[in-house]
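Narrative of accomplishments. A recurring question from our advisory board has been how the design workflow behaves on a single, concrete structure rather than in aggregate. To address it, we present the structure tokens for one chain from the evaluation set, followed by the sequence designed for it. No filtering or post-editing was applied between the two.
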């Protein structure tokens, strides 16, 4: 779904016709423990017209109850059932691969341990306990010892009789209040480097976590809010869910311009206040793309700016639409420096 889709052409807000808003957490609602500017009030306002609000998170370090408590403390009245986590999606995959009550080697923290136990499995931290599978998720305390135990348990490839390996997610990075830090993908990669095999991934960008959320909230017309193209937006597109990329987390304007077809959002937002603002139509005329007062044209390998307009976000939207509709990769263009400008909030 690109910016020049039927939905984007309508002069209405991104929330028009939406019955359930599904939001990612890290980089969308908060960074570390603190709320991202304008997130809480914008999400609260989104519920004024009877919409439901739910959350989808790849972060496996905390329980749904802990996440709900955190959100409530920020001013978003949230119940544990409002939070869909990647460990919950991982348990769906695990139940199809191992016998009920099996012993599972857990690499991760409380959020993952609780879900494994709730699913009726036995938790171990040692490969010596002959686990039936390894489940790996992010937690700040994960270190060499846990990664080594996973490598010992996964030494034999699954196709040769080895045990399954399920990762809650493979986000390379995670936004924190002090900056961007390594995410679960880096830890999964460390085990992969040691054993030479790949994990099965439960969370975004895979579809099961979206299917769980849509079913749980009874969504007929959901909108998903994310900050990452490679997990949030790709996953939403795979699940057939309209999406908005908000520039308050990981991905920046340069990533938006380079987004491949599967990772292009329905909407691009500077911050969540723009959920409530009319989303300008994308007009294509005589080879030029106009959004608001910004107009961009592709001329061979050059991206030409015919009008910068008055809003950097509209210039980015116009440039992205122009590039995306060519189907060509960003490295095939000469890109004016102003299109990489990044005045948007960063973690």
């Amino acid at each position: 779904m690109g910016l020049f889709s039927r939905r984007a052409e309508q002069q209405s807000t991104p929330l028009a016709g939406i019955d359930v808003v599904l939001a990612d957490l890290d980089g969308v609602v908060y960074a570390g423990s603190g709320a991202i500017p304008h997130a809480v009030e914008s999400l609260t306002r989104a519920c004024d017209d009877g919409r439901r609000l739910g959350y989808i998170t790849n972060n496996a370090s905390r329980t749904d109850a802990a996440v709900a408590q955190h959100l409530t403390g920020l001013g978003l009245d949230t119940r544990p059932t409002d939070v869909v986590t990647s460990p919950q999606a991982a348990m769906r995959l695990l139940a199809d691969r191992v016998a009920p009550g099996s012993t599972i080697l857990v690499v991760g923290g409380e959020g993952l341990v609780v879900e494994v136990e709730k699913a009726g499995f036995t938790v171990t931290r040692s490969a010596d306990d002959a686990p039936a599978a390894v489940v790996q998720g992010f937690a700040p305390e994960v270190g060499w010892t846990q990664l080594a135990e996973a490598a010992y348990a996964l030494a034999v490839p699954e196709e040769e009789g080895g045990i399954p390996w399920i990762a809650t997610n493979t986000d390379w990075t995670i936004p924190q209040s002090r900056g961007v830090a390594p995410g679960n993908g880096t830890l999964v990669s460390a085990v992969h480097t040691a054993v030479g095999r790949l994990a099965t991934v439960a969370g975004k960008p895979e579809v099961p976590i979206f299917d769980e959320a849509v079913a749980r909230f009874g969504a007929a017309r959901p909108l998903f809010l994310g900050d990452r193209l490679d997990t949030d937006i790709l996953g939403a597109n795979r699940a057939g869910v309209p999406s908005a990329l908000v520039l308050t987390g990981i991905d920046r304007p340069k990533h938006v311009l380079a987004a491949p077809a599967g990772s292009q959002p329905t909407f691009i937002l500077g911050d969540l206040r723009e959920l409530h603002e009319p989303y300008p139509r994308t007009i294509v005329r005589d080879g030029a793309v106009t959004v608001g007062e910004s107009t961009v044209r592709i001329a061979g390998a050059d991206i030409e700016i015919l009008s910068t307009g008055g809003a950097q976000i509209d210039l980015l939207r116009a440039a992205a639409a122009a590039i995306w509709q060519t189907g060509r990769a960003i490295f095939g263009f000469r890109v004016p420096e102003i299109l990489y400008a990044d005045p948007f909030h960063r973690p």
